[in-house]
Amino acid sequence: SQSQYTVKLQSFPQASYNDAVVAAASAKKLPCIVDIDSPNVPNWAWAGYIKPLGLPDSEWSGQLASTVGKVNDKVYSFGHYDVALAFYTRKSILQSVGARVPTVAQPWTKSEFADVLAKLKATGKYPYALDLGTGGTGEWITYAYSPFLQSAGGDLIDRSSYKKADGVLNGAQAIDWASWMQGLVKDGYMSAKSGADPTADFANGKSAILYSGSWADATVTKAFGDDALVIPPVDLGQGPKVGGGSWQWAITAQCDNTAGAQAYLKFSHQTKYVAALAKATGTIPATDAAAATMPEYATGGASEIFRTFAQKYAVVRPVTPAYPFITSVYQKATQDILSGGDPKTILATAGPRDPSGGLS
Fold it and tell me: Does the pLDDT of residue 93 top 60, yes or no?
């Protein structure tokens, strides 16, 4: 312990967290350290709310890449944890239709997945074979479904320049993704708007395959025990993908005690605290060292697969201050696609829109 610095907690309302932080920034009332959802890091850096952490690069050794927020090669934020998306099913369900259990080395292909869904639907046992959480709104839509777009070969923005979406959000691969998503609804494999709690629905036998995050693991395991199965998301051509990046810590630009903020962040980044926070929140520890101290995330552990997904499949959302605009465009397009609109027409409108959102 030490007596030089004292940490005081300042709370912001969760429902309007971003708006509250922006208001506090305008009034110059931000605390020295803020919690920030990782896709917002570039926008907050551009707006001047946060500044580079100024800690040595060695601090991030063995850290999941998705938990370090970099803008123009400078580290502006870091997280103690991440989460990972996955498919959940049951061993007995796959056995009942003769389906192969997909692995990290050999995930389901697009055609293989279609065959499994057709067989599951044919059993008549489930209202829907698949639940992708389509009742979700807001950032869930981009976090959950843009990885499928990326697995198909499209993207939210051309990452070679971060200046245009034309060609990647409305190209052939993106249209294939949109047609695939819509086809899941048209073929009766999933609902265009799932229930309020897809994990509970899966636990109650209303679906055969659930798409959710590592946070659902405890509920699924409690419901099905050894029959529960965590598998990679489907490979639509470019390998399985999952969203990367969760809540992270940053130092505000108006902090008048940067040294104190740095000292606290470095202190909190100790292995024992990374492990403790991951354990308390049921999330994936951000560092290799912390994972090694947690039996469930160590080699062969029950939750190791989620960290493997985070390491191998994670794609961070576009590192650009225009991300809030980009995600709003994608969310509307996806909802229109799920509602039955023509994929090519919808993406033809979304793709050419200026992805800078008026920011430069």
Answer: yes
Tokens 């086809």 label which residue? Answer: 183
Based on the domain organization, do 60 and 206 belong to the same domain? no
pLDDT tens per residue, range 119-132: 999 999 999 999 99
pTM of the model: 0.94
* Number of structural domains the chain divides into: 2
Please give the Cα distance from 312 to 240 (Å, whole number). 9
Looking at residue 360, its pLDDT comes to 45
* CA pair distance 344, 178, nearest whole angstrom: 8
Task: Please identify which residue in the block is written with the tokens 């777009």.
Answer: 149
Spatial CA neighbour of 84 closest among 198, 213, 199, 230: 213
Same domain, 219 and 290: no
Whether 197 is in a domain gets the answer yes
Task: Examine the domain organization and report whether 64 and 104 are in the same domain.
Answer: no
Q: Sign (positive/negative) of CA torsion 284, 286, 291, 294?
A: negative
Q: How would you classify the pairing of strands 33-37 and 247-252? A: antiparallel
CB neighbours (10 Å) of residue 111?
8
Asked if residue 182 is part of any domain, the answer here is yes
Point out which residues pair with 247 in neighbouring strands. 37
Q: Degrees (nearest 5) of the Cα angle 60, 66, 70? A: 65
Q: How far is CA 208 from CA 124, 140, 161, 235, 300, in A?
A: 11, 21, 41, 19, 26
Q: Half-sphere exposure (CA, 13 Å, Cβ side) for 236?
A: 22
